[in-house]
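Hello forum,

I keep getting stuck at the same step: I have a sequence, I want structure tokens, and every attempt I make locally crashes halfway through. Rather than fight my setup again tonight, could one of you with a working pipeline run this one for me? It's a single chain of 280 residues.
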Amino acid sequence: MQEILEFKDRAVFIAGGSSGINLGIADAFAQRGAKVAIMSRSQDRVDTAAAHLSRHGGIACGFAGDVRDPAAVVAALEAAHARLGDFDVLVSGAAGNFVSPALDMSPNAFKTVVDIDLLGTFNVLRQAHQYLRKPGASVINISAPQSFNPTIFQAHACAAKAGVDMLTRVLAIEWGGDGIRVNSIVPGPIGDTEGIRRLAPTEETRRAMEETIPLGRMGTRKEVADMALVLSSGLASFVTGAVIPVDGGSSLLGGRDYRETYKASVAARTAARTGAEHGA
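Reply #2:
Ran it on my machine without issues. Output:
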């Protein structure tokens, strides 16, 4: 089994790979001998992440760019391909989110999440196709439970991630003839990530979230990375178009109720604003 999950000298490109779940995936591939390239908006974070990945002894490089900008995506992919060769694994994981009722959300706020999550995924996959190994490449989109569970105060994320999963299925059909597999991973509540810090900003909301997970705990970044390794290995050679939750069963219970999270975030912003005014 261990040999099957080795990726020595395989080329891996990860969009959004400088932090959180995506960095965990990059780290798992780097530990197993892969050549890894990451792309993210912040050059400082990219440099820090690439330095961390290089400690595993293989090639690790990073490129700054916004997935919403097709030209930036092309530049990063071209540079990574020149360094690593054809990509055996492509992961698209850039995402944005916040908690808000639809009526409190501006059109631009809604558009921002759709542009990062859905348009960004399309940009990465569309521009990377020419650099994918054919046959044999594994493409993985990082989705969210909002893609199939209507979730209060998450209209933007629900719309964006539903589009990501449908894109996964369509491209699995269109690119199957090239020997390219396309799948989605749907992480549930994963501790120590920016997503959890935003969606469960207090200890109380975090505990409440944990209590609703059938397995009784939050997941880890390693557990999501393990699924990415399996999907990119020979163990999943006949798996494509799948949308796979890694969530401890939490999505089985339907969409989460983020009303208390929203109240807590509003209270925190109000307190911060009041403190700043008194400080002035």
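The first strand starts at residue 11 and ends at 15. If your local run keeps crashing, start a new thread with the error log.
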